[in-house]
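forwarding from the other thread:

> can someone predict this with 1-deoxynojirimycin?

sure thing
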Amino acid sequence: MTYTSSAAAGTATDEIWWRQATVYQIYPRSFADANGDGIGDLRGITDRVPYLASLGIDAVWLSPFYPSALADGGYDVDVYRDVDSRLGTLDDFDAMITVLHDASIRVIVDIVPNHTSDRHAWFREALASPKGSSARDRYVFRDGTGTNGTEPPADWESAFGGPAWTAVGDGQWYFHHFAVEQPDLNWANREVRDDFLRTLRFWSDRGVDGFRIDVAHGLAKELGPASAVLPDAATLEAMPKDGSHPLWDRDDVHAIYAEWRQVFNEYTPARTAVAEAWVAADRRARYASAEGLGQAFNFDLLEADFHAGSFRSIIQSNLELAEQSGSSTTWVLSNHDVVRHATRYGLPVRSSRDQRQGGAWLLAGGALDAVDQELGLRRATAATMLELALPGSAYLYQGEELGLQEVGDIPDAERQDPAFFRNRGVDIGRDGSRVPLPWKREGSSLGFGPGGSHLPQPGWFGESSVEAEDADPDSTLNLYRRALDLRRQLQADEHLDWLNTGRDDVLAFRRPNGWTSVTLFSDAPYDLPAGELLLATAPVTDGALMGVGTVWLRM
Ligand code: NOJ
């Protein structure tokens, strides 16, 4: 396949390139495998830069590619300033970034500061060192309770299920928000802080344009003598909004990011960052401020049902919040942690934040014939085109441009996600959105690589492959390409005006330059306003949008 690039990203000195960028998330181990070991790698990404350029994206965000035992898909980092040997070398990284930059695609890498892996040199040193040592002080160790400390300091549950404290055999226990293999760092420790500044400079010096900050709201902790009862943080609504929770979204976390900002601003253009912070909407502004990380993920649309009223209020409130923070807002519909939106929108019933929103369907075996795939995809492309017409940056997830459905029925024996192992029978985990991409209709791992695929690809993947969709002018892939090309041409001031549609199942808004987006959330035809038709995800007949879909007009 050969592609011509329509890349027209801003120049390297463009300080605000990120404000309305389209960022494509690559989950490197599942993108493309050049060396044939069944795991995607950096050369695989470099080889596919022509494809990435053909999409018309502004940047890629790479999930972790650092040395890791993959206890949590690479979010358990052994070494922060290196590349996992299965994924390549630092030279491969440098070559990749050069080729991406030559194609005018910027590069964002993932930083995982809340926890290291249990194989990190620091954690091994901590285990070999006595209680009270400076090596233990880099992590969160506490004495156990009960006779000889055989009981945990507190009865807290980890985010993947199971206890959040693990004993090390000498009466002490260490704290982990996530899996046992992911010990939390102590951010009150100056050495920890300095080492991350070094990591940020290391990747910035190699030309990285920005960072995605994992669990950005979890770094600051105030455990004191670990108390037995934690304030409820199971839902964002329940989480205290005054920064008083011992573990989440504490106000003192922002002192860390103020230091990081100094480092980002040492570079020209300044390096950017986006916070993964699961906090109440009005607490996002500080993460997104110009003195902090600069931008924060907004997962509100990702958690919402496909419903005009919910979409409108989420969009409106997030635009207002962005204005208050001085940042631009972000939009996300899919990522490596949730059920793909083409599937979510086709599920018979789901409840928000339940099983990464796959709920009962995943627990019942995740068979695709229980999903209305056709409706799911129609809603997904409608939602995506609406998202792409909004002010702010859009974060797309690899494979959504192919309209990929979630792989819900991975056999238990093949699953990798710790959420599955730590929560058996309750949480199936997130592997279904991480299955290696289908590049070809047939052949070894459908073109992912010559050596198989680390998660099994289902038979139906081939028909959603890049090869199949490339050849079909009406494919989801070619729709994304047309949309991203138009988005570049039409990009306008970060503002919109809602249009009165006279219907509660239709949302329409107009950007200052006349770029207008109309989304119909039902199958009751809707007469479109007059204007030049630029793009439609559903049939338009005699000036009416005939079913669920989004239309872009110039008015
Ligand atoms: C958020 C990441 O997106 C997720 O994949 C990971 O499991 C947790 N943080 C822990 O690092």
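DSSP finds 16 helices and 19 strands in the chain. thats all i got for now
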